[in-house]
């Protein structure tokens, strides 16, 4: 049995819980720092990254999240979650700085320009459903970062070792394949650890 947490500071928490359901997998809603010790992988939902960062500081999550990331346990960040993970954010200071990527916020227009599309995501499927809401794009990727998907030539999903990230919201669709890909990453990382 593995345990995957969903950081419940803000955003679409319940939708992630639904998409992560899998065999031998327990989903834990993370509201307290101590809970990080019991999980094997973690999801950062979308929402608003500035607000999420403020709550992360307020509840003492900043350092613990950085150490969780560096421990080798997988993290999956969607949309605002991607922004939290980036080492660089155009025009402002970064947050957790875990992934070697530079992001640009709100790169696909405003709320009313939200859209749904189908994307090819390497290693997952050719037709992953994706909802973009004031989404960021990945402007630059550094060493060890694998580009998993592009939309109109812009990078919208990437992986760096145990870190998986995307600009869009797979949890707002009935397509669970990207989440299930992450569940597999967590199971594999867990097997490596107990070997
Ligand atoms: N635009 C938001 C931000 O910058 C992210 C939007 C989202 O998560 N849907 O934090």
From TrEMBL:
Reactions the enzyme catalyzes: L-glutamine + H2O = L-glutamate + NH4(+); aldehydo-D-ribose 5-phosphate + D-glyceraldehyde 3-phosphate + L-glutamine = pyridoxal 5'-phosphate + L-glutamate + phosphate + 3 H2O + H(+)
Alphabetical UniProt keywords: Glutamine amidotransferase, Hydrolase, Lyase, Pyridoxal phosphate
Binding site for L-glutamine: 47-49, 105, 133-134
GO molecular function: pyridoxal 5'-phosphate synthase (glutamine hydrolysing) activity
SUPFAM superfamilies, A to Z: Class I glutamine amidotransferase-like
CDD domains associated with the record: GATase1_PB
EC numbers: 4.3.3.6, 3.5.1.2
Known pathway: Cofactor biosynthesis; pyridoxal 5'-phosphate biosynthesis
Active site: 79 (nucleophile), 169 (charge relay system), 171 (charge relay system)
Keyword Iron appears in the UniProt entry: no
Top-level taxon: Bacteria
A Pfam family per the record: SNO
Function: Catalyzes the hydrolysis of glutamine to glutamate and ammonia as part of the biosynthesis of pyridoxal 5'-phosphate. The resulting ammonia molecule is channeled to the active site of PdxS.
PANTHER family linked to this entry: PYRIDOXAL 5'-PHOSPHATE SYNTHASE SUBUNIT SNO, PYRIDOXAL 5'-PHOSPHATE SYNTHASE SUBUNIT SNO1-RELATED
Protein family: Belongs to the glutaminase PdxT/SNO family.
Subunit structure: In the presence of PdxS, forms a dodecamer of heterodimers. Only shows activity in the heterodimer.
Protein name stated in the entry: Pyridoxal 5'-phosphate synthase subunit PdxT
Record organism: Alkalicoccobacillus murimartini
Name of the encoding gene: pdxT
């Amino acid at each position: 049995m593995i345990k995957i947490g969903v950081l419940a500071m803000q955003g679409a928490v319940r939708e992630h819980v639904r998409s992560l359901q899998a065999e031998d997998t327990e989903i834990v809603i993370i509201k307290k720092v101590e809970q990080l010790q019991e999980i094997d992988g973690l999801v950062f939902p979308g929402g608003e990254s500035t607000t999420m960062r403020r709550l992360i500081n307020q509840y003492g999550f900043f350092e613990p999240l950085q150490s969780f990331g560096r421990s080798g346990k997988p993290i999956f960040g969607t949309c605002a979650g991607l922004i939290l993970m980036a080492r660089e954010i155009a025009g402002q200071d970064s947050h957790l700085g875990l992934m070697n990527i530079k992001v640009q916020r709100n790169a696909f227009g405003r709320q009313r320009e939200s859209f749904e599309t189908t994307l090819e995501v390497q290693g997952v499927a050719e037709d992953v459903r994706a909802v973009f809401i004031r989404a960021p794009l990945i402007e630059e990727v550094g060493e060890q970062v694998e580009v998993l998907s592009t939309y109109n030539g812009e990078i919208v999903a990437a992986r760096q070792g145990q870190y998986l990230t995307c600009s869009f919201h797979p949890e707002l669709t009935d397509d669970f394949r990207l989440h299930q890909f992450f569940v597999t990453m967590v199971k594999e990382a867990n097997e490596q650890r107990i070997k």
